Each structure stands twice: as structure tokens, then as C-alpha cells.
């Protein structure tokens, strides 16, 4: 059987699209207020670090909803305009927010020598967490040797 041979495929796709998000299940007000966020990570040859680009395609979007309350003071304290700025997406050319990479290299160097997987997990923890992008702990641990490495020092295994 090839793609499109099963007539039920189209119905299944429609049902998948209509399923509510787990955190909005049973609440039409919460579902209407849900914000879709698209994260892109692109390496910056200028800063020599990954840069996090954030796009919110909803028309009633406010950047305030990107940053969890616990991180707002830290985000605002970086640079003249804060760590969260607007720019043109380097691939699509669309206007997007991005976490400014000016101090990323310094922050990552302070963690010492990290392998590629550990580097990304630490980067997600520091840069991503500030704008609501998190990696599940189980996934992070499985990617960096079960939680045994410099990125997880001081954390329970």
C-alpha cells in the first residue's frame, strides 16, 4: 500500500490536527489562548556559538509570554535592550526574536571542556530555559552518558 492509498489517512490527519494540547485539554479558553512558538537554532559564525531564534506566528503575540517569570530580570539585565531582541531570521528573512549571543561563548567557556552532546544540553539549560525551551531530563541524561559527566555534576543521577 502506498501513500494516499488508504482513504482513512485523510480523516486520521484531521483528527490529529483537532486534538487539544495536553495542557489545554478540557479548557476552550486555555486552548484559544495557547501560543504556538517555533524555535530555530542556527550556528553563528560571527559569535561562534549556536543562536536561538524564536517565532510566534499568532497575531496577538506579546514577547512577554516567551520568558518565564523567574527569568525576566536576567533577560532584561543583559545589554542595552536585554538579551531578547528582534532581528531578521538568517534563513527565512522573516522578523523573529532571538536570544542575543554576545555572552554565550563566555558563559559556555566557564563550564569547562564539554563534549558536543554535553555542550548542547548545557546550552539548552542556560539559553533555552530563559525563553521556555527545555529538554526533558531523561533525554538529556541519555544523550550525555546517563547523567555522568561535567554537565551533570552536583545533580542526582
TrEMBL record:
It comes from the Eukaryota. One of its GO terms (cellular component) is cytosol. GO terms for biological process: autophagosome assembly; autophagy of mitochondrion; protein modification by small protein conjugation; protein transport. Keywords: Autophagy, Protein transport, Transferase, Transport, Ubl conjugation pathway. It holds the Pfam family Autophagy_act_C. GO terms for molecular function: Atg12 conjugating enzyme activity. The keyword Ribonucleoprotein does not apply. PANTHER family: UBIQUITIN-LIKE-CONJUGATING ENZYME ATG10 (PTHR14957). Belongs to the ATG10 family. This is Ubiquitin-like-conjugating enzyme ATG10.
